């Protein structure tokens, strides 16, 4: 049910690509400031849902609203971070971090000041004039994270942004993301295949079944905040939630709600 405080509403969403039923009758409500992760097998429609939220894929069946409005391409209320950093090779770290603000018409002095602030927060203060080819993979993702937060959009959509990183760098960036999010509490929809990542970051985890993607579980993550991703690894509560989430995912891979298994 849509309430005055609902940031994102997805209701009865069904997506077909030709003869392929990709998503079947999916419904998710996200409250302002809530961090929601979506997990599920490859091909279940997770990224398709993000693309629908951005207006990049047309809505054909069901209902979607973002801050009370229908999705449109170029919505300034949304910042979208992809699995790849997608840095422009001809722009410095500063130029990349400030690019979204430049597209939105923010004057150079203001956008570069904001970008410098975010680059410092992600540990790249000394690398603002470096080109992407001079940065490590982890540093490139930090620059992409700075670019995403630089937009000041109230809704962040993140599609496996740390999926290709090594384990240590991934933990560092997960903690960095939590630090940035805790400071501002923007609304986040986060796609991941990593259940530990979903538990550590989220207020709630949505589990999708194998294609056609259906919602089989919406699991609240009752762990106190602020959180440290590395500290959580030692928590019995963390591992109990992880185990429950894994069972729900296994049930979804068989195509049935966990409650019916």
Protein architecture, described:
The protein is an alpha/beta fold. It has two domains: 182 residues, 3-Layer(aba) Sandwich (Rossmann fold); 69 residues. 36% of the residues lie in helices and 21% in strands. It contains nine helices and nine strands. The strands form two sheets. The chain has a six-stranded mixed beta sheet with strand order 5-6-7-3-8-9, with helices on both faces. Helix 4 crosses helix 5 and helix 7 packs across helix 9. The protein is globular and about 50 Å long.
Which tags fit this structure?
21% strand, globular, three-stranded antiparallel β-sheet, 9 helices, 2 domains, alpha/beta, Rossmann fold
Question: What's a concise summary of this model?
Answer:
The chain is of the alpha/beta class and 261 residues long. The chain is built from 9 helices and 9 strands. It is 36% helix and 21% strand.
Instruction: State which percent range the strand residues make up.
Output: 15-25%
Indicate the overall shape.
globular
- The low-confidence runs, each spanning 5 or more residues with pLDDT under 50, are 256-261
List the domain count as a whole number.
2
Any idea of the CATH class of the largest domain? Alpha Beta
Radius of gyration: 18 Å
Label the CATH architecture of the largest domain: 3-Layer(aba) Sandwich
Strand order in space, largest sheet: 5-6-7-3-8-9
Calculate the terminal CA-CA distance, rounded to whole Å. Answer: 27 Å
Mean pLDDT: 91
CATH fold assignment of the largest domain:
Rossmann fold
The total count of helices amounts to 9
Number of strands: 9
- Largest β-sheet summary: 6 strands, mixed
Could you estimate the helical fraction of the residues in percent? Answer: 25-40%
Can you tell me the CATH superfamily of the largest domain? Answer: P-loop containing nucleotide triphosphate hydrolases
Q: SSE string, helix = H, strand = E?
A: EEEHEEHHHHEHEHEEHH
SSE-based structural type: alpha/beta
């Amino acid at each position: 049910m849509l309430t005055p405080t609902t940031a994102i509403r997805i209701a009865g969403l069904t997506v077909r690509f030709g003869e392929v039923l990709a998503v079947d009758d999916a419904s998710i409500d996200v409250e302002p400031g809530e961090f929601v992760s979506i997990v599920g097998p490859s091909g279940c429609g997770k990224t398709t849902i993000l693309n629908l939220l951005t207006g990049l894929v047309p809505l054909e069946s069901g209902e979607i609203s973002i801050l009370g409005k229908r999705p449109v391409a170029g919505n300034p209320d949304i910042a979208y971070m992809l699995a790849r950093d997608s840095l422009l090779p001809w722009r410095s770290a500063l130029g990349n971090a400030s690019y979204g603000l430049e597209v939105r018409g923010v004057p150079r002095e203001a956008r570069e000041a904001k970008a410098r602030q975010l680059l410092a927060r992600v540990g790249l203060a000394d690398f603002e004039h470096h080109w992407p080819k001079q940065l490590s993979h982890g540093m490139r993702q930090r620059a992409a994270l700075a670019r995403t937060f630089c937009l000041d959009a109230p809704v962040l959509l993140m599609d496996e942004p740390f999926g290709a990183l090594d384990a240590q760098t991934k933990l560092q960036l997960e903690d960095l993301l939590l630090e940035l999010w805790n400071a501002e509490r923007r609304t986040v929809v986060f796609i991941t295949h990593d259940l530990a990542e979903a538990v550590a970051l989220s207020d709630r985890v949505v589990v999708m079944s194998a294609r056609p993607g259906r919602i089989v579980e919406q699991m609240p993550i009752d762990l106190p905040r602020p959180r440290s991703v590395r500290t959580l690894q030692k928590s019995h509560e963390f591992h109990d939630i992880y185990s429950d989430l894994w069972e729900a995912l296994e049930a979804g891979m068989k195509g049935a709600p966990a409650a019916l298994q």
